[in-house]
Structure formats: structure tokens, C-alpha cells
Specification:
46% helix, 5-stranded parallel sheet, alpha/beta, binds calcium ion, binds ligand C2E
Length: 586
């Protein structure tokens, strides 16, 4: 690895060396040699010039390839080509060599073209003197040095001096190419400090920065010279280690890092404790694609963190299968959204005493080409992690509102619709506006729309949620708390929210016949709802025994396979109109 120090050494200026010798290449202008070898030019600055001569473009490119030059003086006219062609070709090959152009005549067109091509200086031959030339060479070399330093800055993290993300990716690509040739294995480490935010928050950003620098030093010490250590951003670091078989495997490095980082750091008189979580992926065993290799190490790191931190985890292939499936499902969902392939099925909700259908819950349905239906429990979380849930949610909302509007005129007057709202959809600013606009577009009476939110969705940012819900409620929209009993355990919040319905989670209903706890909770929720004047719906009613229990406890409404399964729009409308949904076989 080319590290910061070796780079600095490589960049050392001739003037900083004790005794400098400059290697110059003259191309098509050997007469200039005379100027460089005069006593006044060389000795005064204690610089010796070692001059090589090439006659044309091809020969020049060849020697530039094979030898390190400090600067090149090139004639504009080069039989068949120009000196600027040489400048451009050498630049393309990334030689970083300063070029000084010499011409026979003063022509400002050449001048302009020369500047644009990146030559560092330009002289008319019979006007150039030894001191002018000497200065031009020195400035030229210095200018190139500055350019390389700037390029180096673009490669390194300013705070720690470690490689930055861009450089890390480049080095990894390079190491993969080397590993392909040599058959060696690489290990990629992703590392994240466990409680860095606390250090930053409690002790200030200065301490945070100090700590990051100490961690960087520590990581450098734990790795070999040939490994690339990088800071990817924040408190995230990455390492590509190239000689892991020789050292007994990646876990040796991981353990060394864990041990070193769990020692407290002394920072401006304070003992700062930290620890880290490390994810490891191996090349070529885990992946042959650089992006996935990194994603795998990242995933393994999250697993290490989820297991309490201060540990390392290898990426494992089971995880990889899962990720592949999720990734391809995410892609397919994106397309399905573009093509409008998601539909809504409707599950009737019944009034317990009269048996009438009082509403329906809209449930998203997706059937990818050539496959059966995929459960929303599977695709909704992927839609959430892939950032598709907002679009899907809006689509479902519009479909449900339009369908509900349509069934008002088909004999299902006053049968409302309930739509599930995901946490991210609700968190997004503008949810109120989206709902109101959708109501307008579909011309649905707001009192026929109910939004189902889970307790956790509401509790995440209570103040904001309460305000949004109140605004919706003021417009007539009804609010239901879904999966009630599974989330936030405090009931006090109910007092402060405009809630119209509690939907008792199906896990409790499943146990009402023989589980004492489930019976007690179900009974308590019904009482709570009745006491607060909030409707209570029991979800997942699957048999007559459960229905009887709920009826006896005065639960106002029920929903479940025993009464009716979710069904497509046409079936739903027909079934409710003909009342044959109550058979439970739909
Ligand atoms: P949920 O909101 O609790 O919806 C009720 C789920 O229970 C539905 O599953 C429904 O088909 C199922 N169900 C109804 N009666 C019974 C029963 O008697 N027994 C059993 N075992 N299950 C019953 P589904 O359609 O698979 O949806 C699963 C979850 O996916 C939903 O749970 C909801 O959280 C989410 N979901 C569905 N559609 C949407 C949507 O449009 N947007 C969002 N954000 N989430 C949705
Ligand atoms: Ca629901
Ligand atoms: Ca539910």
C-alpha cells in the first residue's frame, strides 16, 4: 500500500534533498543542452542536471515509460507530430511529468494551445536564457508537486490521515486484481465504534475527533504495512487485509483490533472507553463483486452490533441467500409499482350483534409474473427497507378510496374502508396533505376512510403524530390503532390522541378460548375501549368459540377468516350485497 508517509517521501522536492540531481529529457531540442550544462545554471544552486535526449514522439514516449524524469523540455515541431501531442499522450498515460514547450517562433495561437494542454511553461528558443530556463524547471516541478499533493488530499481522510472511501475502493479493486493473479485470499473488515455518539454528545466533538485519531493509529498498528486502512466517514472504518492466511486468518486481526480498542484511551487527561463491532467478508469465497463484498461486510458488522457489540462476525452464506432474494424482490416490486401491478383485496369487518358489514380493510396484494401471491408480511418490510413503501402506500390509499367511492353506488352505502399506514409513510411530512388530496381526487366522504396505524408508529414522535392525527380527524377521517397490545405498553397516550378504534391483535384472539392471559388482555382491551368510547375490533377470528367469547364480552366488531377472508373488489361487492359473506367460505 502506498501510504501517506511514502507518498510524502516520493514528493520530496529536489531543493529539499542534500545534493540534487535532476533528470531532464530533451525532445527535439538538443541544442538547449548547452544552456543546462553551463556553469551558471547548474552549480549556483548545487543542482546537477542529467540530460537524456530523444529525437521524436515515439522515442520520447518509450523513454518516459522506462525512466523517471523530473521534467521534460519539448520542441513544438516534432517531425509529423507536435510537442503538444507528446504532452497530451504522456498526460493520458498519467506520467505527471512537467513539460516545458520550446518553439522557433512566437505565435500566440501556440501559446494558448500550450496552456490548455497543461504545459507548465512556454519559451521561444532564441529568447530563452539559462536562468529563465532554470527557474521554469524549478517552478514546473513545484507546480506538479502541488498538483500531486492535492490529488493525495483527495485520497486521504483529513482528520486521521487514513485512506478515504474513494481511495479504499480503488485499493480494494487493485487488491482483488492482485488476488486473482496470485490466488491469495483477501479479508474485508468493516468496523464501527459501539458508543461513539455518546462520546460526541457527552464530551464534545473535539474529544470525538481525538478519539477517531487514536482509533486510526490503533488500527494502523494492528495491520500490516501492505493492508489498506480507511475511514469511510463518521466512526466507520474499513480495512482490506491481504496476507490473512499467513497470519492465521482474519479472526487473528479482528481479535487484535477488539483487544486494542477495548483498552481505554487517554485523551487530554480523560480516560475514554470505547469498543467496536467488526464485520468480515472474504474474497473470493463470499462474493466476487466489490459492491456486494462491501455490503456483506457491512451486514456482518450490523450483526455483530445487534449481538451486543465488542465482537466480530463473519458474513455467512445463509444471510447472502436471504439478501439475494430480498434484492431481487425489491427490483421486481419497483417494476410492479411502475406497471400498477399491486392490487387491493378487501376483508369485511362485521358488527358483532347484527352481523352487518360495517366496513372493510384494504390489504395489499401482489402476484409476480408466473408465481403465486406473495404475503404482504414478506413484501411490506422489503418495501420499507428499499424506500418503496411511500409509493405503495399512496397507491393503496388511492385505490381503496376510489373502490370505496364506487361501492357506495353499488348497494354498499355507508360501508367504509380502512387503509394501513406504515411508519415511514406516516413519519414523512405531508402525510396529512396526501390523505386530503386523495380524498379530493376520489371524492370519497372523509368519514368513510379509516387509517390504521400501529402504536409504535404513533409513539415514535408523539407530538408530531398527535398533531397530524388531529388535523385528519378535524377533516372527518377516522383513526384506528392496529395490532393493539403488541407495541407500546403505556395506555396513557390514548387519552391524548383522537382514536376511533382499537384493533385487538390476532395473537390475543387466537388464545381467548384456552389461554388465561389472552382472555384477560382481550377482556381488558374491550373494557378500556368501551370506557373511553372507542370502538373495539377483534382481528383474526377463526372459529365460533372465539366469536362467542367476543360477543359475550361486548366487543363491538369482528374480522377474521371464520367470517370472511380478504377478497378481490368484485367478489367483495357481490358478497356483501348478497350477504353470503357470513358463510365464512368466501
Ligand atoms: P394487518 O394490518 O394486521 O392485517 C391483517 C392480516 O391478518 C392480513 O394479513 C389478513 O389477511 C390476516 N387475517 C385476517 N383474518 C385472519 C384470520 O382469521 N386468521 C389469520 N391467521 N389471519 C387473518 P395480510 O393481508 O397477509 O397482511 C399482513 C400485514 O401486512 C398486515 O397486517 C399489514 O400490517 C401489512 N399490510 C397489508 N397491506 C398493507 C398496506 O397496504 N400497507 C401497509 N403499510 N401494510 C399492509
Ligand atoms: Ca391492519
Ligand atoms: Ca392488525
Amino acid at each position: 500500500m502506498q501510504n501517506w508517509n511514502s507518498r510524502n517521501r516520493a514528493l520530496q522536492l529536489p531543493s529539499e534533498q542534500k545534493r540534487a540531481e535532476l533528470n531532464l529529457l530533451l525532445v527535439g531540442c538538443h541544442e538547449i543542452d548547452r544552456l543546462l550544462t553551463t556553469a551558471s545554471c547548474g552549480k549556483s544552486k548545487n543542482i546537477n542536471y542529467s540530460v537524456s535526449i530523444a529525437t521524436g514522439h515515439e522515442e520520447a514516449m518509450r523513454v518516459i515509460e522506462s525512466k523517471q524524469f523530473d521534467a521534460c523540455l519539448v520542441n513544438f515541431d516534432l517531425a509529423g507530430k507536435t510537442g503538444l501531442d507528446l504532452v497530451r499522450d504522456a498526460a493520458e498515460a498519467k506520467h505527471g511529468l512537467p513539460f516545458i514547450l520550446l518553439t522557433d517562433r512566437d505565435d500566440h495561437r501556440i501559446d494558448a494551445e500550450a496552456m490548455a494542454s497543461g504545459v507548465v511553461d512556454y519559451f521561444v528558443k532564441d529568447q530563452v536564457t539559462a536562468p529563465l530556463l532554470r527557474r521554469a524547471i524549478r517552478y514546473g516541478i513545484e507546480r506538479k508537486r502541488t498538483e500531486s499533493r492535492l490529488a493525495a488530499l483527495a485520497d486521504f481522510d483529513e482528520l486521521t490521515g487514513l485512506a478515504n472511501r474513494t481511495h479504499f475502493h480503488r485499493m480494494l479493486r487493485h487488491e482483488i486484481a492482485v488476488a486473482n493473479r496470485t490466488g491469495r485470499q483477501l479479508a474485508i473488515f468493516f468496523l464501527d465504534l459501539d458508543r461513539f455518539k455518546r462520546v460526541n454528545d457527552d464530551m464534545g466533538h473535539m474529544m470525538g475527533d481525538h478519539l477517531l485519531r487514536k482509533v486510526a493509529d490503533c488500527l494502523r498498528d494492528c495491520c500490516r504495512e501492505t493492508d489498506t486502512v480507511a475511514r469511510l466517514g463518521g466512526d466507520e472504518f474499513a480495512i482490506v487485509a491481504t496476507h490473512i492466511e499467513d497470519g492465521g486468518g482474519a479472526e487473528v486481526v479482528a481479535n487484535k483490533i477488539l483487544a486494542a480498542l477495548s483498552e481505554p484511551f487517554m485523551i487530554v487527561g480523560h480516560n475514554v472507553h470505547t469498543s467496536s463491532s467488526i464485520g468480515i467478508s472474504l474474497y473470493p469465497s463470499d462474493e466476487d463483486n466489490i459492491e456486494r463484498l462491501l455490503a456483506n461486510a457491512d451486514m456482518a458488522m450490523y450483526r455483530a452490533k445487534a449481538e451486543g457489540g465488542n465482537t466480530y462476525r463473519y458474513f455467512d452464506a445463509n444471510l447472502s441467500e436471504e439478501i439475494k432474494r430480498k434484492r431481487s424482490m425489491g427490483r421486481a416490486m419497483r417494476q410492479a409499482l411502475d406497471h400498477g401491478d399491486f392490487t387491493a383485496h378487501y376483508q369485511p369487518v362485521f358488527d358483532v350483534t347484527g352481523g352487518q358489514v360495517i366496513g372493510a380493510e384494504a390489504l395489499a396484494r401482489w402476484r409476480p409474473d408466473g408465481e403465486g401471491y406473495i404475503s404482504p408480511s414478506e413484501f411490506i418490510p422489503i418495501a420499507e427497507s428499499d424506500g418503496l413503501i411511500d409509493r405503495l402506500g399512496e397507491r393503496m390509499l388511492l385505490t381503496a378510496c376510489k373502490d370505496c367511492m364506487a361501492w357506495q353506488g353499488q348497494g354498499l352505502k355507508d360501508v367504509g374502508v380502512a387503509v394501513n399506514v406504515s411508519p415511514s409513510q406516516f413519519k414523512r411530512s405531508g402525510i396529512v396533505e396526501i390523505v386530503l388530496r386523495t380524498l379530493q381526487d376520489s371524492r370519497l366522504d372523509p368519514t368513510l376512510l379509516e387509517l390504521e396505524l400501529t402504536e409504535n408508529t404513533v409513539m415514535r414522535d408523539f407530538e408530531e403524530a398527535a398533531e397530524a392525527l388531529q388535523r385528519l380527524r378535524d377533516e372527518g377521517v377516522r383513526i384506528a390503532i392496529d395490532d393493539f397490545g403488541t407495541g407500546y405498553s403505556s395506555l396513557a397516550y390514548l387519552k391524548h390522541l383522537p382514536v376511533d378504534r382499537l384493533k385487538i391483535d390476532q395473537s390475543f384472539i387466537a388464545g381467548v378460548e384456552n389461554q388465561f392471559g389472552d382472555r384477560a388482555i382481550t377482556r381488558a382491551v374491550i373494557r378500556l375501549g368501551n370506557g373511553l368510547g372507542i370502538d373495539v375490533t377483534a382481528e383474526g377470528v377463526e372459529n365460533a368459540g372465539q366469536l362467542k367469547f367476543l360477543n359475550s364480552k361486548k366487543c363491538s366488531s369482528v374480522q377474521g377468516y371464520f367470517l370472511a377472508k380478504p377478497m378481490p373488489l368484485e367478489t367483495f361487492v357481490e358478497a356483501v350485497r348478497g350477504r353470503n359473506v357470513l358463510s365464512g367460505a368466501a
